[in-house]
């Protein structure tokens, strides 16, 4: 909320540095609240019902994004000032803040009425040990790679899709904005159904492969054909519905409850790092495109070619996850409601083994050499994204 307030104020002063400060605060808040929401849901609905509850959370978020993209220009036109849309966003954030206060008070009341023995048991169950990160499974780090690639691709494309439609298909700002908002509409209708589908039929890894494939197809249609952009945006929207739900619920199944918050936090961090790097790459590639007004439909050629390569890379990672789950994890992520308990019991010891390792005095003996590599790579990418961002501001 504070970040949105600063951004709204910057529209009056027309100060780019003030806007950047606001975006930094906004990013800190939005990333944190998403992780907290998913961690709470993952703790309450471990296993049965998890996909459906996270689906409702994602659907609510997509509805807000859809309405935001579709109403930004009409609100600006209505008040004759582009900053009006930012102030509308601030009002929504203020309402959300008030709802969070109500939730905190309700939870505090529930805490007072809960027996102390139960509270102690819950705390011990969810107590996190930082050493657990060194024992995260290889398949988890594959999801992190997928978050970096596919998640970064999704977010970056959502930043440019309105301008892409306007320039490639020669439409007005209003038509471009509403067309671009279509990329957010399918999750609104599909995700609740997918939540039920994942809970009952599984097939998370199958849907992840399909998500990456649809992402690539949508980019090809939007970037290299003159087929109406609605088709490509709807296909992209289906990809956006399938992927996040499959990834988040899969991570919730393979990690112990005590490390779920950290696992989802790293997942979100990788997505944000990917978005930052891809955004900058996209900006550089766009600068290399045609700058002639009469040739504006080709200004995104290099960008869309990059997204195609990015989509193929994401598909390779998703396919690898599919086979690892099948051969190393007893198809836990693919199992349906009838087979899930059997699949979970087959790997239950593997999932809980890190909890025994970290409590051992000789825990370092159980750490494998490769365990440090994902953390080093992620840290290097984080530093890279910060350096690239700082250079673009300079």
UniProtKB/TrEMBL annotation:
The keyword Transmembrane applies. It catalyses: L-alpha-aminoacyl-L-arginine(out) = L-alpha-aminoacyl-L-arginine(in); L-alpha-aminoacyl-L-histidine(out) = L-alpha-aminoacyl-L-histidine(in); L-lysyl-L-lysine(out) = L-lysyl-L-lysine(in); L-lysyl-L-alanine(out) = L-lysyl-L-alanine(in). Residues 1-328 form the Major facilitator superfamily (MFS) profile domain. InterPro entries: MFS (IPR011701), MFS_dom (IPR020846), MFS_trans_sf (IPR036259), MFSD1 (IPR052187). Its main location: membrane. GO terms for cellular component: membrane. It is a multi-pass membrane protein. The chain crosses the membrane at residues 20-37, 49-73, 79-103, 132-155, 175-198, 219-242, 248-267, 302-324, 370-390. One of its GO terms (molecular function) is transmembrane transporter activity. The keyword Transmembrane applies. Signal peptide: none annotated. Keywords: Membrane, Transmembrane, Transmembrane helix. PANTHER family: MAJOR FACILITATOR SUPERFAMILY DOMAIN-CONTAINING PROTEIN 1, TRANSPORTER, PUTATIVE (AFU_ORTHOLOGUE AFUA_4G00260)-RELATED. This is Lysosomal dipeptide transporter MFSD1. It comes from Coemansia erecta.
């Amino acid at each position: 909320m504070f970040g949105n307030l600063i951004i709204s104020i910057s529209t009056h002063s027309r100060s780019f540095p003030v806007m950047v400060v606001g975006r930094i605060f906004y990013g800190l808040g939005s990333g944190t609240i998403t992780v907290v929401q998913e961690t709470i849901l993952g703790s309450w609905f471990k296993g049965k019902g998890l996909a459906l509850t996270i689906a409702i959370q994602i659907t609510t978020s997509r509805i807000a994004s859809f309405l935001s993209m579709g109403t930004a220009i009409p609100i600006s036109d209505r008040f004759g000032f582009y900053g009006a849309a930012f102030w509308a966003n601030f009002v929504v954030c203020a309402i959300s803040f008030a709802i969070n206060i109500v939730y905190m008070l309700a939870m505090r009341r529930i805490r007072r009425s809960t027996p102390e023995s139960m509270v102690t048991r819950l705390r011990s169950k969810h107590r996190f040990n930082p050493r657990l990160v060194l024992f995260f499974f290889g398949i988890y780090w594959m999801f992190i790679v997928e978050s970096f690639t596919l998640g970064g691709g999704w977010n970056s494309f959502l930043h440019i899709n309105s301008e892409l439609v306007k320039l490639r298909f020669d439409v007005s700002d209003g038509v471009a904005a509403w067309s671009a908002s279509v990329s957010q509409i399918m999750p609104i209708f599909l995700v609740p159904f997918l939540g039920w589908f994942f809970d009952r039929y599984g097939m998370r890894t199958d849907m992840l492969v399909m998500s990456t494939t649809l992402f690539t197809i949508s980019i090809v249609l939007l970037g290299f054909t003159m087929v109406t952009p609605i088709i490509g945006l709807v296909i992209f929207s289906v990809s956006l519905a399938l992927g996040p739900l499959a990834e988040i619920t899969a991570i919730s199944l393979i990690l112990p409850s005590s490390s779920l918050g950290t696992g989802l936090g790293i997942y979100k961090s990788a997505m944000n790092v990917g978005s930052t790097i891809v955004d900058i790459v996209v900006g550089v590639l766009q600068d290399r495109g045609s700058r002639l007004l009469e040739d504006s439909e080709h200004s995104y050629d290099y960008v869309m070619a990059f997204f195609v390569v990015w989509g193929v890379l994401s598909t390779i990672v998703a396919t690898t996850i599919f086979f690892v789950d099948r051969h190393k994890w007893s198809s836990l992520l693919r199992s349906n409601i009838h087979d899930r308990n059997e699949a979970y019991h087959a790997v239950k010891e593997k999932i809980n083994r890190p909890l025994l390792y970290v409590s051992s005095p000789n825990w370092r003996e159980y750490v494998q050499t490769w365990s440090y590599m994902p953390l080093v790579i992620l840290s290097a990418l984080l530093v890279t994204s910060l350096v690239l961002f700082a250079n673009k501001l300079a």
